[in-house]
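Quick one: sequence plus zinc ion SMILES, need structure tokens.
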Amino acid sequence: MFDTLIRKARIIDGSGAPAYLADIGIKDGVIVAIADALDDQATDVIDAKGLWLAPGFIDVHTHDDLNVIHNPHMLEKISQGVTTVIVGNCGISASPAVLAGDPPDPLNLLGDQAAFCYPRFSQYAEAVAQASPSVNVGALVGHTAIRNNHMDDLQRSATTTELEAMCSDLRGALKDGALGMSSGLAYGSAKQSSTDEVIALVKELGAAEAVYTTHLRTEFDGIVEAMNEAFLTARSGKVPLVISHLKCAGKGNWGRSGELLQHLEQAALSQHVACDCYPYAASSSTLDLAQVTDETAIFITWSEPHGEQAERYLADIANDWKVSLMDAARRLMPAGAVYYCMSEDDVENIVSYPKSMIGSDGLPNDPHPHPRLWGAFPRVLGHYCREKGALSLPMAVHKMTGLSAGEFRLHNRGLIREGYCADLVLFDAERVIDSATFIKPRQAAEGIEKVWVNGVLSYQPGATQTGRAGQFLYRQS
Ligand SMILES: [Zn+2]
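Reply:
Sure thing.
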């Protein structure tokens, strides 16, 4: 007797292998049977004829650290078929963190000072478990967060004493189950950290068999040198590397995706490297003066001193104020922005590259978020896969599931196999598409029919209630 029996779905198992027709039996949150035809009884029997069943999508690049606690339904993710989020990316993490004042940029993407109330990683993990979000949560420790714990000035490299204290924070978090560490070296609050500072921390990861993810020191002209720094750092710590949201940013950089992917392939001959990406030609983060340009459009999503200018283009604001773009940006800060800084061809190249995982990089606290928050995964399946034919469906699913679970070392997830956790998404490959747009970003995707997390039905379109069966995923060796 199963809890759930899913009949006659086309199974895309997450390994990259072609789809096959089968029945799937779920019991106590686990896939217990896969066969041509199962005739066992079940509490729930789902007729999945004509639909596709995949492992639940793993959003490897999120800033959902506090959202999974404060907004545990996680509708923006579960409605995409996402069943696991990795939080703590780009050097930004909710724990272990102690803030003496307002969070420095970009930690402010997560919330205000009061929101940072987890000095120890174990407290954060317990808070997530208590909140019981609808998705599983794995967490990285943010390099900038632990810098901020011990440094009175982030515009320099850490001293030996500070670095030892940061290493101690990291060791504690790793012992308590953190998956690894992320850095955000392009941000002002980490830019002055030396490569040696980061290497010292990454060596702690090596000892714990954890991963290192990095928002490169630059994604603009100097990106190859920034990739080289990341390769060296990961090699020094003997850890697998994930380059975050790989992109060719800035008009001068357009057309270089082939060169960057070639460079990644070259490095992959001698060390373990991967990357993640989101399927859009615009980026989004806090407003950064270093990225202010008149070459491509910049859309302001929020501004602390000038909330009335939100949802307007920076160029229009500057025009109204009769000041330069740079002066307008200075007046708006702290603020959030969408930067139309990439070319479609580069995005398609990187999205379809076999070693790139899909991650949304969605910003849940942004009052006018980049549409990737609600649309990244269905957009890959609908737009890049079905409409553009840039990659096959099994490969696209692999880059959201099996590949991701492997890179982040999530045990018994990311594949449809007997004995694996029953994180599953039932979707219509002929209809699936993102609905969220830059104008109307908060829209659930089309074609995601049912989502199970640890065997619990957690989403179906139109249903008001979602299941809340997500678990905290501790690092396992
Ligand atoms: Zn980033």
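Residues 90, 184, 215, 244-245 surround zinc ion (CB under 6 Å). The chain has a mean pLDDT of 97.
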